[in-house]
Specification:
By secondary structure, this protein is mainly alpha-helical. It has three domains: about 70 residues, no CATH class; about 110 residues, DNA polymerase, domain 1 (Orthogonal Bundle), CATH 1.10.150.130; about 170 residues, Intergrase catalytic core (hpI Integrase, Chain A, Orthogonal Bundle), CATH 1.10.443. It has 14 helices and eight strands. Strand 2 and strand 3 form a beta hairpin. Helix 2 packs antiparallel against helix 3, helix 3 packs across helix 5 and helix 12 packs across helix 13.
């Protein structure tokens, strides 16, 4: 088979188990348009059609001409979008590359819920009413969180097709999605946090303490290297993350940050660095100097320790929320907290932690009463 052409076999085809093909495969051509910096993907029913189109398309590209593909099917557009996201050519609205885990999640959502319904449909034939019907069908199954996850990549795909002048109308505009059910994550009080950490094995304690007192994400904890940990200077330089499949990855620009190290964490980190001798490019919390810790094993050890101590378990992500709550209770302003958390903008911080910030409900009335009392007193003096 010519380079750039791949066969797509049916799910029940014996070829998938290493046998002879027992289906009628379709074919897909992939080309790279250097001038426009985008990948071209086009499906065909026969190999001969794919081979002929590819030959003509390569000639057109060499001559600097546009390759006419039409908007194609949703499957072809999704494949092209996913390829572009993996290559780093297609980026988020803020200009950051998509994380590998996000791309995998988007691909799974499309394959499971969207493409079975509309994959073979030409993009130009898909209407908002069609997509709204799909939303309602999925909602009837009681999966609102899944619906939102499925339509995030779909919106991005159609938005790109419109921006590339391959479509005139974006059918995802104006869709009504059911509100996702969100639960508030567990947050430990300062005293409970201390007890949770004290119950852990000594070697694991610094990891959980860094999540609880510095707010690092799991991937950031796994990728933290010794030269980015300035214990004496009181700062953690967060610059990299760790993906389960890709390994160490570059952190999005907004997530690169400096986080202050409080005294409650400094002693833990100093003792850990002295005990392990990690330095330079060594992973601070790695199972070895160059292999990250295993999150599953870390959690299993913690659950066992907390069960023995009769304490309610907490997750690394909930430790990050606990960090946010502690900073708010300590009086750290929202802008600084947003930077320490690595949020894209301050509105995310308010949305997630606004209920913890001063000035809510009865406290808001007390604050206003105190202000009015001071203001009227000053005016009457």
């Amino acid at each position: 088979m010519a380079a750039g052409i791949e066969a797509r076999h049916g799910r029940s085809c014996r070829q998938r188990q290493g046998g002879r093909c027992s289906c009628e495969p379709t074919y897909r051509v992939r080309l790279w348009d250097r001038q426009r910096q985008e990948r071209i993907v086009k499906p065909f029913q026969s190999y001969a059609e794919a081979q002929s189109w590819r030959k003509d398309a390569l000639i057109a590209l060499r001559r600097g001409r546009t390759v006419a593909t039409g908007a194609g099917t949703l499957t072809a557009a999704a494949d092209a979008w996913l390829d572009g996201a993996r290559q780093g050519v297609i980026r988020t609205r803020s200009g950051d590359a998509y994380k590998p885990a996000a791309i995998r999640s988007y691909e799974a959502s499309l394959r499971l819920r969207v493409l079975p319904a509309f994959g073979t449909e030409p993009l130009a034939d898909i209407r908002r009413a069609d997509l709204q019907d799909l939303v309602e069908q999925l909602a009837a199954k009681g999966v609102p969180n899944t619906i939102e996850a499925s339509f995030i990549p779909l919106r991005a795909i159609f938005r790109r097709e419109v921006h590339r002048d391959r479509l005139k109308v974006n059918p995802t505009s104006g869709l009504e999605l059911p509100k996702a059910h969100t639960r508030r994550d567990r947050i430990a009080s300062p005293d409970e946090g201390s007890r949770l950490l004290a119950a852990l094995p000594e070697g694991d304690r610094p990891i959980w303490a860094t999540a609880m007192y510095a707010g690092l994400r799991r991937g950031e904890l796994r990728a933290l290297r010794a030269h980015r940990l300035d214990v004496r200077g009181g700062l953690v330089h967060v610059e990299r993350g760790w993906d389960d499949r890709e390994g160490e990855i570059e952190t999005k620009g907004r997530n690169r940050r400096r986080v202050p190290i409080p005294a409650a964490l400094r002693e833990q980190l100093l003792a850990h660095v002295m005990r392990t001798g990690r330095r330079g490019e060594d992973l601070v919390f790695g199972a070895t100097a160059d292999q990250p810790f295993n999150p599953k094993h870390l959690t299993e050890r913690a659950d066992e320790a907390w069960k023995a101590a009769a304490l309610d378990r907490i997750t690394l992500h909930e430790c990050r929320h606990t960090f946010a709550s502690l900073m708010i209770a300590a009086g750290v302003n929202a802008k600084a907290l947003s930077e320490y958390m690595g949020h894209a903008n301050i509105s995310i911080t308010f949305d997630r932690y606004g209920h913890l910030m001063p000035g809510n409900e009865a406290e808001a009335a007390d604050l206003l009463d105190a202000y009015l009392k001071r203001a009227t007193g000053a005016a009457g003096a």
